[in-house]
Amino acid sequence: xxxxxKLYLIPISLxxxxxxxxxxxxxxxxxxxxxxxxxxxxxxxxxxxxxxKISENVNKISRFSEKEITSKDFxxxxxxxxxxxxxKQLANSENSLVIxxxxxxxxxxxxxxxxxxxxFINNIHIIDTKNITQAQLPxxxxxxxxxxxxQGSITYRYADPNVPRSSNIKDFDNYVLKxxxxxxxxxxxxxxxxxxxxxxxxxxxxxxxxxxxxVLSGIRGRNPEGWxxxxxxxxxxxxxxxxxxxxxxxxxxxxxxxTFRPSDIKALNSxxxxxxxxxxxFSGQRCNDKNPPKDANGRIVSQDCFDSNPxxxxxxxxxxxxxxxxxxxxxxSFDYTVWNQPILGYKYVYYNVLTGQVSNKAESVMxxxxxxxxxxxxxxxxxxxxxxxxxxxxxxxxxxxxxSKANSDSPSQDGISRVEYYYDLEITQxxxxxxxxxxxxAHPDFMWTPVAGQDVSSRTVPKTxxxxxxxxxxxxxxxxxxxRSPMKEWLPYSARAAQAYSVPLENVVxxxxxxxxxxxxxxxxxxxxxxxxxxxxxxxxxxx
Length: 544
Prior knowledge:
InterPro entries: TGase_elicitor. Keywords: Signal. Residues 1-24 form the signal peptide. GO terms for molecular function: aminoacyltransferase activity. By secondary structure, this protein is an alpha+beta fold. The protein has 18 helices and 13 strands. It has helices at 12-39, 41-45, 66-70, 73-85, 110-113, 124-129, 169-179, 182-187, 196-203, 210-219, 231-240, 262-275, 303-306, 310-323, 362-365, 470-475, 491-501, 506-516; strands at 51-53, 134-136, 248-251, 257-260, 280-284, 329-331, 341-351, 358-359, 367-368, 387-399, 415-427, 433-438, 446-450. Strands 1, 2, 5, 6, 7, 8, 9, 10, 11, 12 and 13 form an 11-stranded antiparallel sheet that branches. It has a two-stranded antiparallel ribbon with strand order 3-4. The protein is elongated and about 80 Å long.
């Protein structure tokens, strides 16, 4: 029987055989793809890339209805969320129909997108010396619910067996505020059945349940659709913050014990990042055209809907994931299954675009531009490059899961999927990657990530300059002792943040996340640390 705690040494000869088998499988698949593409490029271009379930926790239920998928209305829905992430600074109506060429434009320069641009490499031969044809983050971003608005977002009582089974926000609104208000559950000592928002309000001693009411009032009357939620908050915070790994029990000023499960803490994190501003970098444009213009081969010729250029995407992969070991988020306008997904890792092989021969070194299989006589994209080549090489890239990415009543969380509970993309790269005489072409229209066309070192804040609690008082304690992560609880002086600020931004106080959530991210050692829970402040000196919520 295999022992997971024992180190098994695999003979080099066996590893070589495994590698050759993998290459053989890749080569056969690529040759079939080339054949199909040459026979009917428009059909191949319009195929939705296959998704492979890597973990058993992947939710197969689409966020879009069959009607939204068949009508392609999902493209416009996705663009609505994208517009919240960025303000469209480039590509207006005058240039949206300009036929794009294969080299990436200056505004899409991946050097300015990735963290630590001083480490950026865009020469394919230098990249190949780094042995990063496959790479994975040293940690796993955590999965979470997208907290659909029709269920009340983070006011949803996922642990309540009597919660309405409905897609109408009115049913949840009525249940939470009238039929079964939080006060009745508290009186019955059923605090574990409260929603993440209600638990936070209870922790702060907020009798008006300001956060709960603010979240619901922002949804009430909107008749939200099934796709609406806070995935744009979950996606970045899943890798910017450490994973909440265990439940944390704290008290409010009245001595009421409240247990925050990992799902509760994740929900509060996601809401913070969905509703507060953060300095963000992006690459790509907005696309809300359900039927963008195409050429005779089926290639999209709208610059907005062609982005991101495959060279920009490839260089973001190898530099951000492979070299910097930091994630980023990608979206594909024409793929209803890929939407604001954090990337976990990748693996790619190069291939000869004529023969399908594969290699982990571009030099072995790239061909001269002039030799690519069957090039369906010849009219778009910029002329700057001398060589072309094909790439088959497998991308592993995080997907949403349902909230859980579990008291612990680990990567084994995450949802992970894999998608394969085919594209080519254009290479100059000296090896610089200048551009490329997608062989699938449902490709990544938008990438974004918060700037490294960024965090969110409502700036509700003022910094007084004093080294004492409730405000000083808040900014220095001091809680009350005996019991360990938030200070009652924070309540007005908490209510203000909830009413103005529909968010909790960030430092309260930071405390919960930092405590949850660390284990109990020698019966000493981080939330009961002997000497305050224990955050961020000992424990931290932020992933460096």
